[in-house]
Design a protein that fits this description.
The complex is a heterodimer.
Chain A (H helix, E strand, L loop, with lengths): L1 H20 L10 E7 L6 H20 L8 E7 L4 H13 L5 E3 L4 H14 L2 E4 L6 H5 L5 E3 L4 H15 L5 E5 L4 H17 L4 E6 L9 H10 L3 E3 L4 H13 L2 H4 L1 E4 L6 H4 L8 E3 L15 H14 L5 H23 L7 H8 L3 E3 L4 E4 L5 E2 L2 E7 L8 E8 L12 H6 L11 E3 L4
Parallel strand pairs in A: 1-2, 1-3, 3-4, 4-5, 6-7, 6-8, 8-9, 9-10
Antiparallel strand pairs in A: 10-14, 11-12, 12-13, 14-15, 15-16
Helix pairs in contact in A: 2-12, 2-13, 3-4, 6-7, 13-14
Chain B lengths: L2 H32 L6 H21 L7 H23 L9 H23 L8 H6 L1 E4 L2 E4 H24 L1 H11 L1 H6 L4 H23 L9 H16 L4 H21 L7 H12 L14
Antiparallel strand pairs in B: 1-2
Helix pairs in contact in B: 1-6, 1-9, 1-10, 1-11, 2-3, 2-4, 2-9, 2-10, 3-9, 6-7, 7-9, 10-11, 10-12
The chains are: A alpha/beta, B mainly alpha.
Family (chain A): Belongs to the leucine-binding protein family.
Protein name (chain A): Branched-chain amino acid ABC transporter substrate-binding protein
Pfam families (chain A): Peripla_BP_6
């Protein structure tokens, strides 16, 4: 009996070996269909619309170069602003009716948490192209889901490290975040790390105004009465801009250091309202003046095309999209090569995604074994210069992803609890404006 | 509680309440007179804000000083009120006055959706901002805290003018008396020769103009972006329900309560900020189900 099983197993192994080496090369399709969820309505469309513009540019560029292994890509966009239920059925429709080969979902962390299990059920490769929640791969093992960018933990750690390394002499801090998952979670990460690294700092106010609040007058009055040394806000879009503008009109930005980990995406609209000296990040090493890549042809061409299409400089969702596309292209190229030049099937593409390294428009990103991307973090200080009518980012530091996020298999909360003073010595590459 | 903090709370509450009142009073008026709950009211607010911000920012690039934006806001609001509000009343609402309330609600809801999308088509989804008038009016300092004169002095002054103006209009002018007559008893008013249709049109245009004016006046203080309309309509409903539908003085008091409640919450219990308007509404309605100033009307048979 045992022998029979062994023989059967051996036969199977031989057979499967034969399959991967040459046998069924999947037929080369006419198109690689890519479904993309992005915000085309609602407040988060400040990210979604630039994301779509980037995707269109990248797809056109890819197809001009001959597509993926000679096959052009075709994009299908769906609106995340339509709400969870609609989005899930739209996701299902794209996979089952349009038969997309790859999905790219999503911007919202809530949508990622909902759609990742759905992608597993539908057995479709899903690239989490922009959402931030660190929970995805810390709490779950996925086969079909990959994140081609960082997550909230390294993003918050970079902001905190930069603050502690460049302006360590503060004793009070206040937070003004949007009242929803991201606002709460990012503050949890930031404040628990702060408690571990600088326990004497006093948190004087924790304000969570309503998402989309049009007016922060009362918050600003309270902050002016409290005079905290540092004010953190992980808000974004119109909320961040309203808050910073109102704070700047009333002089609050003069008396406190603002730490704004997402402000890269609002620089161009905030203009002079953003005070020089504010700490500004862009969820990864994303910046249209990226000190290491801004002079490459690829980068310059993308920025020019993006400006043509939208009138603006690209912001981080556009760069996240570039990473998702680089991963897509890289994975197919690797899979085709591994398949002896033949068109790969889905499992072969998934195999290629594991451990894949790819370069969008910033530094190289590598997918870890838990499918989480290792994305370095750029953060710096806002400064007004002559060339632009909005502040640029100066005194930039780029932190390596490995140094500021928990290793595979460790949850962020646990890892942050174990941080000690040696974390403050984390290395970085420093750049100034004009480098 | 020290006096300085109390003062801060008061200033913030009044400034916010003033803006809320400007919008909510239009909704209250329209409901009081026409018995229509206009869901599209928030769209007038959004349209007013978008039109004001883009027009003022465009004129500013042509060298217009910041304070001149204020008359521009007024004109914009009136144009929107007359054109959009007038057309909506004349061609849509007029057909459904005799239908059930559920249908009326659905029609205004449909208009709200259409206007929301129209606004997206015209202005896109990126936030707009122009704060010329706010900067032109400068800041005032109270106990070490800086306020913008626009929010602490100008907006409450405008709100007060609107409140007194509406009172005067309804009680001491012929057109106002006609509207009051139609509100009290539409059939009797028509029987003595009052043109109820015109009264409705005038009321609706005034309501729409006030909403657009609220949006225009809010635009220097905030980012104008998709979603401001729906947000405002929810808040306006809370004010109108707290006030007692149709009560103008009630709307002023309710808006003030909600403004103060909100700023008290920010100072003393930030977690409650978001629910404050609704908490106040629930508390008031528990004690006075007809609202602060509402009257229990005798049912007509």
């Amino acid at each position: 009996m045992l022998k029979a099983i062994a023989a059967a197993t051996a036969a199977l192994v031989v057979a499967s070996g034969a399959i991967t080496s040459d046998a069924i090369a999947a037929d080369k399709p006419d198109k690689v269909k890519v479904g993309i969820t992005t915000f085309l309505s609602g407040p988060a469309s400040v990210f979604g619309v630039p994301g779509r513009a980037a995707a269109e540019i990248l797809a056109k560029d890819l197809n001009d170069r001959g597509g993926i292994g000679g096959v052009p890509v075709e994009l299908f966009f769906t609106d995340e602003g339509a709400g969870g239920e609609t989005l899930a059925s739209e996701f299902r429709r794209l996979v089952q009716d349009e038969k997309v080969d790859v999905m790219m979902a999503a911007i919202s962390s809530g949508n990622c948490l909902n759609l990742a299990p759905l992608a597993e059920d539908l057995e479709v490769i899903n690239i989490l192209w922009d959402c931030g929640t660190q929970r995805i791969f810390e709490e779950e093992d996925y086969k079909y889901n990959f994140r081609t960018q960082g997550n909230a933990t390294p993003e918050m750690m970079a902001a905190l490290l930069y603050l502690l390394q460049t302006k360590p002499d503060f004793s009070t801090i206040a937070v003004v975040n949007q009242d929803y998952a991201w606002g709460r979670d990012s503050w949890n990460l930031f404040s628990s790390a702060l408690k571990a690294l600088k326990p004497d700092v006093k948190v004087v106010a924790e304000l969570f105004p309503r998402f989309g609040a049009p007016d922060y007058s009362a918050e600003i009055s309270r902050l002016q009465a409290l005079r905290p040394d540092v004010i953190l806000s992980t808000s974004w879009g119109g909320d961040l801009e309203t808050f910073v503008r109102q704070a700047s009109q009333r002089g609050l930005t003069q008396s406190s250091t603002f730490v704004l980990p997402l402000a890269e995406s609002s620089l161009q609209r905030l203009g002079g309202a953003l005070p020089d000296g504010a700490i500004v990040g862009g969820r990864g090493d994303h910046y249209f003046l990226h000190p290491e890549t801004k002079d490459t042809d690829k980068f310059k061409a993308f920025v020019a095309e993006f400006q043509d299409a939208t009138g603006d400089y690209p912001i981080y969702p556009a760069f996240h999209m570039a990473q998702a596309f680089a991963a897509l292209e890289g994975a197919y190229a690797k899979a085709i090569e591994a398949n002896g030049g033949e068109w790969p099937d889905e499992d072969q593409v998934i195999e290629a995604m594991n451990g894949l390294s790819f370069t969008g428009l910033g530094r190289e990103v590598t997918l870890r074994e838990d499918h989480q991307g290792l994305e370095d973090q750029l953060i710096g200080t806002a400064r007004t210069v002559g060339e632009y009518d909005f502040p640029i980012i100066d005194n930039m530091r780029i932190y390596a992803a490995e140094d500021i996020m928990p290793p595979v298999g460790t949850e962020s909360v646990e890892w942050i609890g174990g941080l000690d003073q040696s974390f403050l010595d984390t290395k970085f590459d420093a750049y100034t404006y004009g480098d | 509680m020290n006096t300085q903090l109390l003062l801060l709370v008061l200033f913030d509450g009044i400034a916010y309440g003033a803006l809320v009142f400007l919008v909510a009073v239009g909704l209250t008026l329209v409901f009081g007179v026409m018995r229509i709950l206009n869901v599209a009211h928030g769209s007038f607010y959004a349209l007013g804000a978008y039109a004001a911000v883009s027009l003022a920012a465009w004129l500013a690039t042509r060298g217009m000083p910041g304070w001149l934006a204020l008359p521009v806001y007024l004109v914009t609001a009136v144009v929107i009120g007359v054109v959009v509000g007038g057309l909506m009343e004349r061609f849509l609402l007029r057909r459904i006055y005799d239908n059930e309330q559920a249908l009326q609600l659905l029609v205004t809801f449909a208009i709200f959706m259409i206007l929301e999308n129209l606004q997206r088509v015209i202005w896109g989804v990126q936030p707009y901002f122009y704060s010329g008038p706010l900067q032109a009016l400068g800041n005032v300092s109270v106990g070490g805290v800086t306020y913008t004169a626009y929010q602490t002095l100008f907006l409450p002054a405008i709100a007060l003018c609107v409140l007194l103006g509406l009172r005067f209009f309804l009680r001491h002018t012929l057109a106002g008396s006609v509207i009051v007559a139609v509100t009290e008893d539409r059939e009797a008013a028509m029987a003595v020769g009052i043109n109820a249709r015109r009264a409705f049109l005038v009321t609706f245009v005034i309501g729409a103009t006030l909403a657009a004016l609220g949006g225009a006046l809010a635009s220097p203080t905030t980012s104008v972006l998709p979603g401001i309309g729906p947000d405002m309509i929810v808040l306006s409903f809370a004010v109108a329900a707290t006030a007692g539908l149709g009560q103008i003085e009630g709307a002023a008091l309710a808006a003030l309560l909600i403004g103060l409640g909100r700023s008290f919450a920010v100072f003393y219990a930030p977690e409650f900020e978001v629910v404050m308007p609704y908490l106040i509404m629930v508390l008031v309605l528990l004690v006075r189900p007809e609202g602060l100033f509402g009257r229990t009307a005798a049912r007509k048979i």
